Amino acid sequence: MKRRFVRVISSAVAALSVVAVANAPQAAAYNTLGCKWSHSGISFYVPSPYISYPYWSNAAASWGGLDGRILWNTRPADFTGLNESRGNTVSWTGVTRALGTVQSFPPCSGGHWVSGQMEVVLNWTLVSGYSSSKIQGVAAHEIGHAFGLAHNTASTGILMYPYDSRTVSGPASDDKAGVNALY
Ligand SMILES: [Zn+2]
């Protein structure tokens, strides 16, 4: 189970991630990871020198107005954001992972994530060729994972669609419904 979650959450472009969600019902166009925060005000911090900073900022704002809310640039942080240049050594353009790992799932205790032990990352090598809105879409997608949402392949118009060919740069109504169901 844990290994499957690792694949779902970490492989933005891997075929395995589609296989992992293929058996999930698609009627409600959101899926959940099986872990979430124990509170609805979720603090997120990104150091301002990072080149990814404006994308994380805009992506966090795009998730506003929900029952589960991102408290942007608040410390101590439940999760942090950064960018790395990993070239093609990984398949992901963005990842949500345990702090300091390449792509391991964050620790989950009693159905809740452990504050401070999660980070969201943009692989700058791959996203630097993207448009600004597409980069923001990858960032917002990772924040969706950080809420507790899993991939959903029902439509390219869903933010949690697993590939960067998604047609939205922020949460759609189905994505928001998923977060409101979680918190
Ligand atoms: Zn993803």
Describe the protein in words:
With 183 residues, the protein is α/β, with parallel strands linked by helices. The chain has one domain (2-182): Collagenase (Catalytic Domain). It contains six helices and nine strands, in the order ααββαββββββααβα. The strands form three sheets. Strands 3-2-4-8-5 form a five-stranded mixed β-sheet. It is globular. The chain starts with a helix and ends with a helix. Mean pLDDT is 89; it is low at 1-23. The structure holds zinc ion.
Helix content: 25-40%
Largest sheet: 5 strands, mixed
Find the structural class using helix and strand composition: alpha/beta
Strand content: 15-25%
| CATH topology (fold) name | Collagenase (Catalytic Domain)
Q: Note the run of SSEs as H and E.
A: HHEEHEEEEEEHHEH
Describe this structure in a few short sentences:
The chain is built from six helices and nine strands; from the N terminus they run H-H-E-E-H-E-E-E-E-E-E-H-H-E-H. By secondary structure, it is of the alpha/beta class.
Strand and helix layout:
Elements: H1 2-10, H2 15-22, E1 31-32, E2 41-45, H3 53-62, E3 69-72, E4 79-84, E5 94-98, E6 108-109, E7 112-113, E8 118-123, H4 124-127, H5 132-147, E9 149-150, H6 173-182
Parallel strand pairs: 2-3, 2-4, 4-8
Antiparallel strand pairs: 1-9, 5-8, 6-7
Zinc ion binds at residues 12, 141, 145, 151, 162.
